[in-house]
Structures are given as structure tokens and as C-alpha cells.
Amino acid sequence: MDRRVFLRWSAMGASLVSLGASAIGSPIALAADAKGWPASAFAATNVNELLHELFHLRSVPESSTVRLQITGPMDEQRIVPVSVAVDHPMREDDHIVRIYMIVDSNPQPLASIFHCGPKNGRAACYQRVQVHQDGPIRAIAESNRGDLFASAALTVSSPQGGKK
Amino acid sequence: MSLLPTMTNRKSMHYGEVLISLPKKIRKGEIIEVQVQILHPAQRIPGNAKGIFIQELWIAMDGSKICYFDWSSRIAPDFAVPLLAEKSGILSVHWIDNQGKVGSGKRTFTVSV
């Protein structure tokens, strides 16, 4: 992934603010709870427990292929815009299948799991994440071959410090 | 991005509405950026007092799932993901929250050769 592409992904936060395209219909109905939502992983209360729950590991090696960036300031709700880009092929036989977003200091560290594939063309995503208190956030990418790659942890700190 | 002003200026907005943004021109084989914003209680305050949040969200093309998210209560429901433009069709976004409510939105996805 070249620098220009990465920077483009990093700038997505600003462009999302102006999002206002029309949607064609937005039906709402009652339905069953989300099936397959990994409740036990989301219930883990610390990173060690989470890594064991997800991968049966105590740590995941850092790799420069996973680039995590905080793309804007923290707002009053302690929400930070975060982009992740993984420099990895997205071929049918070799691709990233999941990107985990982890906030170490949250009571439940697992914030999200993005399930992706070759039809995405690139393993990347932009999200806005609430951070309970100042501390590290990290992303872990998992390939279809079972390889795991962790980003370097980034420390999020609010101008005032403290916690939500 | 040259889109409509902001969703808060929209008088037609309603709970659960899904706003989808695509590039104006999409070429075959190009990797584009799909931006999505959902009008949901979790939008303003993730981890809100009522504990309402979107648990799962997926993107589909002509009904076939392309990718999806599992979310905790700490995620605000707006995001962007890449998409490989292969063919024209209907791009849809679907969500289900932890209260069992569901919603969706769709846009025509036109790929030029």
C-alpha cells in the first residue's frame, strides 16, 4: 500500500462528517437478536482474557503491515476517529478475514470486529470508537491462513485526561 | 466530498435511516470507499445510558453479503470501508441492534467500464 492510499484512508474521518447522501428506504422491524455476535469475546474484561478468548494466545506479535491511525481529535463523548489499513494481499487464496479493534482501557476492551474479504479489495476500515479512559488502542488483523498481525499500540489521551 | 450538506439538515431523517455515500464515478476494477452513517441512538452517545447499540452490520451487493461488522456499545454507527468495484447493482447496508430492531438502506451502484 503506498503512502498516498494510506493517507487517503486516514483522512476519511473528515469526509464522513459531510455525509448526507440519500438512502432509498430504511425499513425497521423487530427481529431476533444478532445471531453469531461473539458475546463471550465482547464480554472479556482485559486484553489477556480477550486474546485468549479469540486466539488462545497471550500476545500477538506486532507487525508494520497493520497501520493504525487516530485521524482526529477526541470529542466531548470521548469518541476518537480511527482508521486501520493492513498492507496484505486480498486474493482469494491469501487475504485478511478479520480486523479487531481493541481499546485496552475500556471495561470490555474489544470494540469491534470487521469481517472482510477479497471483494473489499483492500483490508482497511474507518470507525469512531469511544475510549473509556486514556490508554492504548490497537488493531489486530487475521488472515485466512490463520496468521495474526498486530499494530503498534497508540496511546489515546484527551486534552483534559481522566475518564468517561 | 461533494455530498448533501449534513444529515442533521435533512427534514426527512428518521430513526434507523441509513445514509450511504459513494463516489460520483466508479470505474470497473477500482477500489472505492463506501461511507455509511446510521441514525441510531448510538450515533450520538456510544455506550449510552439505555445501552442501545448496533451489534451487527453488513454490506451486501444484490443481496450477497460482502463484509460485516460485529460491534460493541463503544462504536458510533458511522464508518467507511473499501469495496472493489466489479459490477453495477444495488448496494445495501443492514443493521441489527441489541434490542432486536433492524434497519437497512440501499443505493444504486453504477460501474462504468
Explain this structure.
- The complex is a heterodimer of chains A (164) and B (113).
- Chain A has 164 residues and is of the alpha+beta class.
- Helix content of chain A is 17%, strand content 32%.
- In chain A, strands 4, 5, 7, 8 and 9 form a five-stranded antiparallel sheet that branches. A three-stranded antiparallel sheet of chain A has the order 2-3-6, covered by helices on one side.
- In chain A, strand 2 (66-70) and strand 3 (79-86) form a beta hairpin.
- The relative contact order of chain A is 0.20.
- The longest helix of chain B has 4 residues, at 41-44.
- Chain B is built from one helix and seven strands; from the N terminus they run ββαβββββ.
- At the A-B interface, helix 2, strand 1, strand 5 and strand 6 of A face strand 1, strand 2, strand 3, strand 4 and strand 5 of B.
How are the secondary structure elements laid out?
The complex is a heterodimer of chains A (164) and B (113).
Chain A: H1 3-10, H2 12-17, E1 29-30, H3 39-43, H4 47-55, E2 66-70, E3 79-86, E4 96-103, E5 110-115, E6 123-130, E7 135-143, E8 148-150, E9 154-156
Antiparallel strand pairs in A: 2-3, 3-6, 4-5, 4-7, 7-8, 7-9
Chain B: E1 18-21, E2 31-38, H1 41-44, E3 54-61, E4 64-71, E5 75-84, E6 89-97, E7 101-109
Antiparallel strand pairs in B: 1-2, 2-5, 3-4, 3-6, 6-7
